[in-house]
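Exam revision sheet. Question 4 asks you to relate a sequence to its structure. Input first:
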Amino acid sequence: MNQTVTRALDLLTVLQDGPSSLDECAQRIGVHKSTALRLLQTLEAQRLVEHDAAHRYRLGTGLFALARAALEQRDVRALARPHLEELNARTGQTVHLAAYEAGEVVYIDKIEARTGIRMYSRVGLRAPLHCTAVAKVLLAELPAPARRAIAADLAYERMTARTIGDAETFLAELDRVRADGYARDRREHEEFMNCVAVPVRDGAGDVVAAASLSVPTVVLDEAGVLALLPQLARAADAASADLGWAPRPATEREDRP
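Answer key, structure tokens:
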């Protein structure tokens, strides 16, 4: 790599530790002050670096735009796929990835079970909002007014005897999902299938997808599917990390109304 470029990148690395004077910058990257000053001025012209009245340099606002663009260019499906494939290999069960798009929850990826028992779901298919675990995860993260509006508008088609049938019950279910951090479909969508789902987050902490495991009742009962939750959560967290997410302590989490 060009030496000038390398030194400029070294300066950005130095400044990520906090504001530094010209002398400190020059010393840290092993160059004369005049060289460090030229590099800093070039970076400042691109808003990658800025300095205060005391001539202490810090990272500039231009880096925010670059970081935002980098995160937006990350394809959640492509980044999640290796982790979901590994999850499928470990558990042998059907893995789904779904996203909330224009008021609908859509399956954006699927890895078939290794048991030979296939679900009718497919990429591009809409998931019912009131009775699928992936939909519950995605809707639970919406602001309260949006959740209430969606709940009021649903037809609550009865898919099985366990399907949620009214707005009040559905909203209570979404509250539980928000509190627990995962959702379950206990034979609500298909009589022979249990499912558990968790969120996939981007660098801002926003839920951009839901990952799930779906298991036929002849393979595992509800407790058996729930026992797979830690493996599912690890896969989703790994995908979230690739999207730039870093979990915050529970005390620092912002709970939207």
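Marking note for examiners. The chain has two domains: 3-70, 74-252.
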